[in-house]
Design a protein that fits this description.
CATH architecture of the largest domain: 3-Layer(aba) Sandwich
Radius of gyration: 23 Å
CATH superfamily of the largest domain: Periplasmic binding protein-like II
Shape: globular
Number of helices: 15
């Protein structure tokens, strides 16, 4: 049986597998102290984790915040702020008992009232609040208990709830009514707390001395488990220029970096002061159309664009050759992988593109490619796509802004942009459900008019979440992927390997979807 898109019963059974083994000693920092500077490649648009799906936000914010549930090293759901979770026999009620004592960074004791308020806020402004569509409501019957009530049984609810793509992080109840992306003073329960954030420059965190580790575990696993802040501070310095990240790592100005360009690796491999840390299938390089604005509101125009693209050329430029072609929204080694819609992929057929253009009635209007230089793979893929579109007669124009601005613009339907360039990394790693959430309303990335998604797409999404069998839900995923590719609601280019790096004196840092700084220490 496939492991992907599991039933909630299977997921719940797995929760018991990660308890602390009898007699095992929990992790203890080999050394406490030190100030680690991490070179991040892009600026943040916000530290309001509930309202941002960007990698740059998640990198920092998920060291500050925690959730009821998260994922382990193998992306299995585990408890985080919850001590236990019970599912009712009719699958309509989930009862969470909270760990205690848990304190927020401001010293306040966390209770179920804070959990309820966090869910209230997420239901209003959460970037992926559709995960709560089938939830009838929630209650806090006592300070240590939180109850979620479902409208109908949903086999994938725990998978959705434990995703850290855009998680329902727990914040103090007094922030319940803060508007989206206005949570400028993030307060969570994580091992690190905010010291200072200077847009475009750096974000500094420090150890939270009041942190309560999860004693059901003895080691960090995924973004949960037993976590300890060994470092005094972690500073995320925004270093957008790849050469500057390499230079900073070589001199020791940076103790870790998010991304090393492929061309620098031969030299760095010979430097005994540097550890090179590759992470395969880092993200799917992708472009999203804006179907609420002309000419990308026209299906035949979008099909013309799709037909014109040579994915090898795009991915080679995006990754310095360190890539693999990939038709869809999961990697070939994952249990949910499907090649449904493959007949639309990597066509590189200029004659077909021109035929579709003629059918669309395209008359040379500007087609705006919205991208940024903070992430060179995004910029380079846009640059090559521009050239390929111009070659078939499309008036493709680049709009280059910083990463936060490009994200903000891409979240608005209507005129101003036609294709937005990004990478989907964490979501494909979490599974098909987390990935296809991007294409479901509200906030579907293809920006349908009035935020009303394609009915066929929404029906497939509903089936992915609610059908009773794994096989049925996988078929729904394949159907949804095929609709997306057939109607060109996304243009996946391919996937590539991310290479991170640290100084040799940094221990405990293991590449993951998010840079984890708990259980990380410096030897000198």
């Amino acid at each position: 049986m496939r492991r992907g898109l599991l039933t909630s019963a299977s997921l719940l059974a797995g929760l018991a597998l990660y308890a602390l083994p009898a007699g095992a000693e929990p992790f203890k920092c080999p050394k406490v102290g030190g100030n680690l500077v991490f070179g991040q490649e892009a600026n943040i648009n916000t530290l309001d984790q509930m309202t941002s799906a960007t990698i740059s936000t998640r990198n920092i914010a998920m060291n500050i915040y925690e959730s009821l549930m998260t994922r382990d090293e193998n992306n299995h759901p585990i408890l985080e702020l919850a001590e236990s979770m019970t599912e009712s026999p009719d699958h309509l009620t989930y009862t969470f008992k909270l760990r205690k004592p848990i304190h927020f960074h401001n010293g306040k004791l966390m209770t179920s009232a804070d959990v309820a308020a966090s869910f209230d806020r997420y239901a209003k402004v959460g970037n992926q609040r559709s995960i709560l569509n089938n939830v009838a409501g929630w209650d806090a019957p006592d300070p240590d208990t939180f109850v979620i009530r479902m409208k109908s049984a949903q086999p994938t609810f725990i998978e959705a709830l434990s995703s850290f793509s855009v998680p329902i992080v727990i914040i103090p109840a007094e922030f319940k009514d803060v508007p989206a992306q206005q949570l400028t003073n993030p307060i969570g329960t994580g091992p690190f707390q905010l010291v200072e954030s200077v847009p475009g420059s750096y974000v500094k965190l420090k150890r939270f001395d009041g942190y309560s580790p999860n004693t059901s575990f003895n080691e960090r696993t995924g973004f949960g488990g037993y976590k300890q802040a060994c470092l005094d501070t972690v500073t995320f310095r925004i270093v957008t220029e790849p050469g500057a990240r390499v230079a900073g790592l070589k001199t020791g100005e940076l103790q870790g970096v998010e991304d090393l360009p492929a061309k620098s690796l031969p030299e760095l491999k010979n430097d005994k002061n540097i550890k090179i840390l590759p992470l395969k299938n880092w993200w799917i390089q992708i472009s999203s159309p804006n179907v609420s604005a002309p000419p990308t509101d026209n299906l035949m125009f979008r099909k013309a664009v799709q037909a014109a693209l040579d994915m090898d050329e795009i991915m080679d430029a995006a990754s310095d050759g360190n890539y693999s072609l990939n038709v869809g929204f999961q990697y070939p080694n994952q249990p949910d992988y499907t090649d449904a819609g493959k007949e639309t992929y990597n066509l590189k057929d200029p004659a077909l593109a021109k035929k579709y253009l003629a059918q669309s009635g395209y008359a040379g209007e500007p087609v705006v490619l919205l991208t940024n230089k903070d992430y060179p793979p995004m910029y380079n893929s846009a640059l090559v796509m521009q050239q390929q579109l111009q070659a078939v007669g499309i008036n493709a124009q680049m709009k280059v802004v910083d990463w936060p601005t490009s994200v903000q613009l891409s979240q608005k339907e209507g005129p101003g942009w036609n294709f937005f360039f990004t990478g989907w990394g964490t979501q494909p790693a979490l599974g098909a459900l987390a990935t296809m959430q991007f294409l479901a309303s509200p906030n579907a990335t293809y920006r349908p008019k009035d935020d009303k998604g394609d009915p066929d797409l929404e029906a497939a999404w509903k089936d992915m979440n609610t059908l009773p069998t794994v096989e049925g839900r996988h078929e729904a995923f394949a159907r949804m992927q095929k609709i997306v590719l057939d109607r060109v609601y996304a243009l996946p280019f391919g996937s590539f390997t991310k290479v991170q790096g640290t100084r040799a004196n940094v221990d405990g840092f293991v590449p993951y979807r998010i840079p984890r700084f708990s259980n990380v220490w410096m030897t000198n």
